[in-house]
Amino acid sequence: MAASIEQHHDRVAAYLKQKPGNAVSLADVVALAEITAHSLQSVFESMDQVVHRELMGIAGYIKAMRAEIAGLHFNELKHTRIPAAGQELDAIVKATEAASNTIMECAEAVLSGDAGDQAAFKALVDEKMLIIFEACSFQDITGQRVAKVVETLKNIETRVSRLADAMRARESAGFASEEERAGAERKQKLLLHGPQSAGDQIGQSEVDTLLRDAP
């Protein structure tokens, strides 16, 4: 493109050198316009090719994005998988609560039983222990429900990862919203007041060090 423009300048300069004096007529203007149009034709053609390639690239990118977005199956996630996962979690909470109440009631019954009558007390303990064992069987069903929820989360993760790779997305710094930032700060502040994953908890030696170094 630079070479074409330089050639155009050379042609215009050569034409002007042929003109005696400084007089410029309408014919001269028309001639210069013709020279300019002819010289820049190749420039416009190359620009058209570049623009065409860029537009074709954009069109291909949009087509790929449409295919990836269609592959996410948003309606399936919104109306089927995510609600089903929520229902499974609700069932887990209810089953855990029911089993806990049953076990506590049995324990209270055993503690309040009359140990003076050994035969009756043994029968009471045997009965309540059997109920406790039955209540503890909720763990098997809970494990199956948790597996379904984990499967849903992995499915969502796989689809979002595919879309991010196709879009060549880069992770931005900071938080997406003020609400997310506040939640992260609150989670950090309450780290010592809730259940922690294995490996994340503070060891006793670290606690001893903090107490020893405290003013």
Describe the protein:
This protein has 215 residues and is mostly helical. The chain has 2 domains: 2-16 and 24-68; 73-168. Helix content is 80%, strand content 0%. It contains 7 helices and no strands. It has helices at residues 2-18, 26-72, 74-111, 118-136, 138-167, 178-189, 204-213. It is elongated and about 130 Å long. It starts with a helix and ends with a helix.
Residue share in β-strands = under 5%
Number of strands: 0
Helix/strand-derived category reads: mainly alpha
User: Helical stretch count?
Assistant: 7
State the major sheet: none
Low-confidence stretches: none
Helical residue percent?
Answer: over 70%
How would you spell out the order of helices and strands?
A: HHHHHHH
Radius of gyration: 39 Å
Total domain count:
2
Terminus-to-terminus distance: 74 Å
Q: Kindly report the average pLDDT value.
A: 75
Please tell me what the overall shape is. Answer: elongated
Quick description:
The protein has 215 residues and is an all-alpha fold. The chain has helices at 2-18, 26-72, 74-111, 118-136, 138-167, 178-189, 204-213.
Question: Keywords for this structure?
Answer:
elongated, 0% strand, single chain, 215 residues
Q: Which helices and strands occur, and which strands form pairs?
A:
Blueprint: H1 2-18, H2 26-72, H3 74-111, H4 118-136, H5 138-167, H6 178-189, H7 204-213
Helix pairs in contact: 1-2, 2-5, 3-4, 3-5
